[in-house]
Amino acid sequence: MDFDIPRIPLGDWIEGGLDFLTTEFSGVTRGISRATQGGINLLNDGLMWLPEWALIAIVVLLCWRLSGRRLAIGALLGLALIWNLGLWDPMIQTLTLVVIATLVAVVIAIPLGILAAISDRFYRVIMPILDFMQTMPAFVYLIPAIPFFGIGSVSGIFATVIFSMPPAIRFTTLGIRQVPKDLIEAADAFGSTRGQKLVKVQLPLSLPTLMGGINQTIMLALSMVVIAAMIGANGLGSEVWRAIQRLRPGEGFEAGIAVVIMAMLLDRLTQSFSGRKKTR
Amino acid sequence: MTDTQQTKIQVRNLSKVFGGDTKKALELRDEGLKRTQIFEKTGQTLGLSNINFDVREGELLVIMGLSGSGKSTLIRCLNRLIEPTEGDIIIEGENIPQLNDKALLHCRRRHFSMVFQNFALFPHRSVQMNAEYGLEIRGIPKAERAAKAKNALRQVGLEGWENAYPSQLSGGMQQRVGLARALANDSSVLLMDEAFSALDPLIRRDMQQELIELQHRMKKTTIFITHDLDEALNIGDRIILLRDGEIVQIGTPEEILTRPADDYVARFTEGVDKSRVVTSRRAMRPVRATARDDDGPRTVIHKMGENSLDSIYVVDRERKLLGIVEVEQVEAAAKAGKESIRDLIATDFPSVGPDEPLSSLYSMFNGKSYPIAVVDDDRRLLGVVVKGAVLEQLAEAGEV
Q1: Which CATH superfamily is domain A11-49+85-279 in?
Q2: Do residues B57 and B8 touch, judged by C-beta distance below 8 A?
Q3: Does B400 have pLDDT greater than 80?
Q4: Residue B38 and residue B24: Cα distance in Å, rounded?
Q5: Which among A180, A182, A193 is the nearest to B105, CB-wise?
Q6: What confidence tier does A275 reach under pLDDT thresholds 50, 70, 90?
Q7: Which of B78, B102, B129, B133 to mutate to test the interface with A (most CBs of A within 10 A)?
Q8: Do B106 and A191 touch (CB under 8 A)?
Q9: What number is the average pLDDT over the span B311-327?
């Protein structure tokens, strides 16, 4: 009993497709690469130019204003610890990658989310794609990133954007679709155009949900930026990566704790921001 | 209602089928099948069938029916929040179902403002910004729309609440904002979809009264949807009764009560609460203006003109009721150069105490045009009862 069913060359097809894209669109990818690298350098240099104590002061003040004293104290202790451990520069590099990846992801995600909210057909097309993007193991995105953008931070951002975009799209769509039907009816009854309805009613009312989506995107971006160290993205991830290769658990945990502190600060800050919007 | 009123909207052969194959459903309807039979055969719901009526300029038209009668569908077909399946809706020469998207937008902005059952206020906008919404999307300059919205808010008694947000207001106040948002827009027709149904009974009564006064003042063509006969009788100039997507009767409140078109309408009017004992106090309204016995004829004419009355009660300094004067006589006296109205005062007018049952009031009208005065034990004027109010109250009590 030996059936000779040929193996489906799925991997070959995908590679063929990727090869095609890298060769045919090398001009485009190089342009994107250069622009992204420029953005990374600019933001990184800007953040590095600030003395450590100044940045800490800014973050602590922000936490105080947006949330309260507890978060401000937490921010002060956490950031001081990172500074003390000598992880300040990698932390800034990671922050830069997170900020840029999130910006790119949000800029792409919000229009797509709006489109999916307005058009049922587009909704049916994009939802399975989002499922695919979210369930595909995150490491896999790293591989095609290299032929597109080479080893380094730009590849890291590419993989991060793809991995972290879905919640921002989903939450935007959800937020808009959740706007009560009678408010839509009221907007229509007064003769609003589609654009007026969107800008004056649907988007403002979906803002809290939308901010929740952005919060999720930031969290996913942070986790992915760390993993992207495997393909040469700088930052706390590469500290962990080096610790693995040298089998130094102590150093690994130090960098890991720095990531946890960053995650908590980013999460609480964006949450308090969206919460403030909600209660006005 | 006079016959000289112009027609504002003509609705002709309006039908609405919910579901896919609308043609089949309408064919079956034309063969004489009823709503339930059509649903069994095709799975389509006949929401409205062959609706014909006119809306007159400046009237308050009530469309009344129980839930499922198609009243909400009907009002939404007028501004095409729901697309009608067939028929014409003509407003100022435009046939609404035929309009393209752009013309429809224009038509909605120009002709229709809507007030919703659950208020549908924008929670992220202040009271002022809610009232400005309709003007804002039309691109009216900021200063102008702010002034118009403020004026509309004053009309509904919300002066000073401009900066509050809807969630900070009670239900009654929220619906005032809804009304102001519609009024500020200055469209030619006001659509009110069960506008007071979500309010508690006392507030509701007040709002009805205010709507009547507002409507009287502004002469705004209003189409009001309700499931409540009391409300329909209380506010409507004319009432359209709707059942299963068809019009059962169109008429004034009095016609509906006294000449019900069929058993359905009759049962409706019987169904109202008989238990309440109604007295004149209930139907009483405050007096709009009174003359003093030492007023001159010209003052009295002015007072009557201000309040568009053709007769006015005369009271003394303690508000004790002396009698009534009619406009013709006062005008004649003014022409003759008389200084006083004292010898014009007629005393043979009906007056009752506040606890007189309404059933005995009805016969007192007997061709008289002026209202019945309600006085207390010291003959001080408390208010007046007009014929319409007696009818409404009797209708509520099921006495007609």
Answers
A1: MetI-like (1.10.3720.10)
A2: yes
A3: no
A4: 9
A5: A193
A6: low
A7: B133
A8: yes
A9: 84
Residues 81-110 of B with CB under 8 A from A: 81, 105-109
Averaged pLDDT of chain A: 88
Flag if B120 and A193 touch (Cβ within 8 Å). Answer: no
- A183, A190, A276: best mutation site toward chain B, by most B Cβ within 10 Å? A190
Strands B94-95 and B112-115: unpaired
Q: Which of B81, B109, B122 sits opposite A201 (nearest CB)?
A: B122
DSSP β-ladder status, B94-95 and B86-91: antiparallel
Cα torsion A42, A44, A50, A53 to 10°: value is: 160
pLDDT band at B68 (very low <50, low <70, confident <90, very high): confident
Find which of B99, B106, B137 to mutate to test the A interface (most A CBs within 10 Å of its CB).
B137
Mean pLDDT value across residues B32-55: 86
Burial (CB < 10 A; 0-12, 13-18, 19+), residue B147, is middle
Q: By the 8 A CB rule, do B389 and B285 touch?
A: yes
Residue in A with minimal Cα distance to B101: A193
- Would you call A182 and B109 a contact, using CB atoms and an 8 Å cutoff? no
Domains, chain B, in order of start with CATH, read: 57-80+97-270 (3.40.50.300), 280-397 (3.10.580.10)
CA pair distance B226, A271, nearest whole angstrom: 44
State whether residue B161 is helix, strand or coil: coil
Distance CA B13, CA B93 (A): 17
Per-residue confidence (pLDDT) for residue B191, from 0 to 100: 94
Say what the pTM is.
0.71
Listed by start position, the domains of chain A span 11-49+85-279
Chain B nearest-CA distance from A119, in A, is 18
Q: What is the ipTM of this complex?
A: 0.75
Q: What is the mean pLDDT of chain B?
A: 84
